Amino acid sequence: MDSFELNKMAGAFLGVVFVVMSISIVSDAIFDSPVPEKAGYAIEVEGGDTHGGGAEAKADTGPEPIAPLLASADVDAGRKVFKKCAACHTGDEGGANKVGPNLWNIVNRPVASGDGFNYSSSLSEFSSGNSVVWDYAHLNGFLLKPKAYVKGTSMGFAGLKKVEDRANIVAYLRTFASTPAALPAAEAAPAADDASAGEATDGHAEKPAASQD
Ligand code: HEC
Questions:
Q1: Does residue 201 surpass a pLDDT of 90?
Q2: Binding site membership of 114 for ligand 1 (Cβ less than 6 Å)
Q3: Which one, of 108, 91, 117, 74, lies nearest residue 173 by Cα?
């Protein structure tokens, strides 16, 4: 191999480097891809009316609480939302179990305690021997995303993303009783940007209700 040939090869190599670099510079200029400030994907949350801090707060503090909305919730709107549930649930006293259990007296009823219904082992475990009741906080969390709240539940329902829908349906579920359960105390109004707000309002969830009966 003589030096002329070596020169040709070096030249060819440099030429390739030059072309590759030019392409990368030009494509950088064309396909401007700014580096995001935070790593990861931006996930759009459905129900855009809760933007403005709400979505961020949700990630850290669990479901947006329905407690502050319940007093003014719309029972008729809840009745309409219940159409999504009615394929699987009845709500009247002594009503039949369908795919899901009858929901008479569901507010503050011990979890997985409906008569004659064959609950999943996940929901039965969640009930800790019927010591956990369906208070407003648990209903809120479960109805937001059943499968995330009780992993392995057999309730095949995606959930109600809008906090208004959940407040309205729970206000309607509350009417499935001869004496509707008391509304939650409104003391703890949610401060969307306060990291502890979710806990403050949803907090009393795990208290056993044994003393009630
Ligand atoms: C596709 C059928 C289906 C739909 C739709 C459905 N559910 Fe359910 N639901 C079930 C089943 C099945 C269970 C029992 C879950 C288990 O055992 O894990 C259940 C359980 C429940 C429980 C717990 C009952 C208990 O006794 O512990 C509540 C509360 C509930 N559903 C409310 C609702 C509401 C409110 C809706 C509508 C927004 C709804 N469900 C929609 C099937 C359904």
A1: no
A2: yes
A3: 91
